[in-house]
Amino acid sequence: MPTAISINGLDVIRGGRPVLRGIDLEIAAGCVTGLLGPSGSGKSTLIRAIVGVQIVAAGDVDVLGRPAGDPDLRRRLGYVTQAPSVYHDLTVLENLTYFARLVSVGRDRVEDVLERVGLTPESGQVVGTLSGGQTARVSLATALLHRPELLVLDEPTVGLDPVLRRDLWDFFHELAEAGTTLLVSSHVMDEAARCDTLVLLREGLVLATATPDELRRRTGTFDLDDAFLRLVEGVG
Predict the structure, then answer these.
(1) Which long-range contacts (CB under 8 A, 24 or more apart) does 207-215 make?
(2) Burial of 17 by CB count in 10 Å (0-12 exposed, 13-18 middle, 19+ buried)?
(3) What single string gives the DSSP state of each residue in 168-192?
(4) What residues have CB less than 8 Å from 138, skipping those under 6 apart?
(5) Distance CA 108, CA 25 (A)
(6) Which in 79, 94, 141, 145 has the greatest CB count within 10 A?
(7) What is the number of other CB atoms lying within 10 angstroms of the CB of residue 191?
(8) What DSSP element (H or E) covers 117?
(9) Is residue 27 very low, low, confident or very high in pLDDT (cuts 50, 70, 90)?
(10) pTM of the entire predicted model
(11) Cβ atoms within 10 Å, residue 215
């Protein structure tokens, strides 16, 4: 399959400490790739390098055929951080209307995105009065407005109830089927089974890149939590 993200020899040092060490990685286009690992494994730093906002010590990161951070990528990439990047003193609709103007899309697209993230009933509510999960969905909605080719999501389901998590993952796969590439980070291993491909990260190193089924076969266990632990312990 075509490659959306290509990383070669990536090193990142923060505070004098190596955070990513010699990362080599290719992420296929049009798939949902899960970036999984415990807190502190380097997931957010790797994402920041991919979207071009992280200073790197060595290595190359190419995104959609361009160097990470290239201005050409701004309208082709959507990025949702762990901390929602929206205005808490505006309503949901006011936020989306503002961001829609920045990316030159109309009211129809705003209404469509609101429906897709399940926030139409809350469109007139001030963001500061929403729950954490609802606020995260507002942030996701802003990233979807311009129909990005690559959507990078850092822990998008934290704080969401199981039904909403399921619905969002179904939505992610709908986007992938329509041609969008998604990179979704999580520290929750039960979300691994929802991904087409997994990248398992620990202490700044890639332990494995595989489909969920390949990972199960490699480690001899069906449970993906156990599979990750076996890789950590050098089994499989």
Answers:
(1) 207/231, 207/232, 209/25
(2) exposed
(3) HHHHHHHHHHTT-EEEEEES-GGGG
(4) 84, 86, 92, 95, 96, 117, 119, 127, 130
(5) 38
(6) 141
(7) 19
(8) none
(9) very high
(10) 0.90
(11) 24
